[in-house]
Amino acid sequence: MEYVYHEFEWNSILISLNYQHLRWGVIDHMTIKTIDPPDAPLPITETGYCSHYIDPTALEYFDKDPVKYIVSRLDELGSQPAWQKQQDEARQYSLF
């Protein structure tokens, strides 16, 4: 099966998502990459790129929509104190 390409925005960051259902006939695969700004960190990756394998049944809760799944993960991890602290420090332009 081929990859399906999606673009979406999360917290003012444009993100690409390539999704393949049942890669090797076994597992779903996603690649997530920030487009604008390029290489922007996300709660799921410090580099702006992530390759992610997922059990195909995990998407059932999200109406089999990989974008809904990734946005849910970004929202969940983005609300955690470690991510909030990282974002606050980035806005402060810390010299240390």
Helix share, percent: 25-40%
**Overall tally of domains:** 1
Q: How much strand? A: 35-45%
The overall pLDDT, averaged over residues, is 89
Biggest sheet features: 4 strands, antiparallel
Distance between the termini: 48 Å
Given helix and strand content, the structural type is alpha+beta
Uncertain segments are none
- The strand count comes to 4
Number of helices: 2
Structure description:
With 96 residues, the chain is of the alpha+beta class. The chain has one domain. Helices cover 26% and strands 35% of the residues. It contains two helices and four strands. The chain is elongated and about 45 Å long. The N and C termini lie far apart (48 Å). The mean pLDDT is 89.
Question: In a nutshell, what does this entry contain?
Answer:
The chain is α+β, with helices and mostly antiparallel strands and 96 residues long.
Q: What topology does this entry show?
A:
Blueprint: E1 4-10, E2 13-23, E3 27-36, E4 49-54, H1 66-78, H2 81-92
Antiparallel strand pairs: 1-2, 2-3, 3-4
Keywords for this structure?
96 residues; alpha+beta; four-stranded antiparallel β-sheet
